[in-house]
């Protein structure tokens, strides 16, 4: 009987040891999958950040071009309005109307560019919020892993 009890105790100890190893391996797998997901999220975030920076640079360049074109058109319009030529007044009015139309079109394009800029800022804000949520989820997962490792050790 004593022999059977010793054998039983040894088997229980082996079983407990195997269960602990299994739990440790499961925690390692969880940590590896968590770090892999974190790496993928980081790579995706970097990609999105590069794309956003590219769009912002393109937008800034377009805005500069629009402002330059607007200044040129305003100068031309001012010159036409100041000119006191002896030419046909209808020709002058046609030029003035043409410049005014170009200026109106440019202002419309500027408004559109401003709307694009606002949209980019909204996207950036949404990306930041999503990143913060992901960081919180990762922190929570890490805390859960730590808690579960503490409970398995006890």
TrEMBL record:
Domain of life, per lineage: Eukaryota
Q: Which organism is it from?
A: Neotoma lepida (Desert woodrat)
One GO cellular component term, please give it.
Answer: cytoplasm
Coiled-coil regions listed in the entry: 8-151
Q: What is this protein called?
A: Uncharacterized protein
Q: Which GO terms describe its biological process?
A: negative regulation of BMP signaling pathway; negative regulation of transcription by RNA polymerase II; negative regulation of transforming growth factor beta receptor signaling pathway
Which terms are listed as keywords in the entry? Coiled coil
What is an example of a GO molecular function annotated in this UniProt entry?
A: DNA-binding transcription factor activity, RNA polymerase II-specific
- Which InterPro entries has this protein been placed in? Tscrpt_reg_SKI_SnoN (IPR023216)
